[in-house]
Amino acid sequence: xxxxxxxxxxxxxxxxxxxxxxxxxxxxxxxxxxxxxxxxxxxxxxxxxxxxxxxxxxxxxxxxxxxxxxxxxxxxxxxxxxxxxxxxxxxxxxxxxxxxxxxxxxxxxxxxxxxxxxxxxxxxxxxxxxxxxxxxxxxxxxxxxxxxxxxxxxxxxxxxxxxxxxxxxxxxxxxxxxxxxxxxxxxxxxxxxxxxxxxxxxxxxxxxxxxxx
Length: 213
Prior knowledge:
By secondary structure, the protein is α/β, with parallel strands linked by helices. 32% of the residues lie in helices and 18% in strands. Strands 3-2-1-4-5-7-6 form a 7-stranded mixed sheet, with helices on both faces.
């Protein structure tokens, strides 16, 4: 009779050690999160996924944009974040703020945010739930996932549908003309930074008198 253990693939001791190290690191990371009073909304609770062309803003930039959004939305304002999850996460950290916020995002990991998460694919810009009424947001913050006119144009359709008027767009400096053409926005002095340096220069664009100059 064959020994039952024979058909269980054996991992080399090297692989085993590497695996154990990996799990240990993961446990430490998780442990760190809980010991720091880990907040499910904090940046990094969902890691950026480069395959989805996600690049999180630096903490400072996300805070600055969140602050601007709250001011622009006004008391009891409604804010929509289109493909801008790190701003959404910063807004959620501001407990008891007098505003409400929605996140429109392709990455379904954000469905942990419940009702506020709306699955969004820029290829279908107006494929939105019926309860998202036209022109029902005081400000829309958008960061199209790709630096292409097609992506900007389609995202712009969504933005124009959602906003009462105010738009805060973050995209590459190379998109300045297209941004003006599709959304009527102008470049601000404020320069958004990402948590990892991107090759493309990024800028913010608005169509109202903002605090970003």
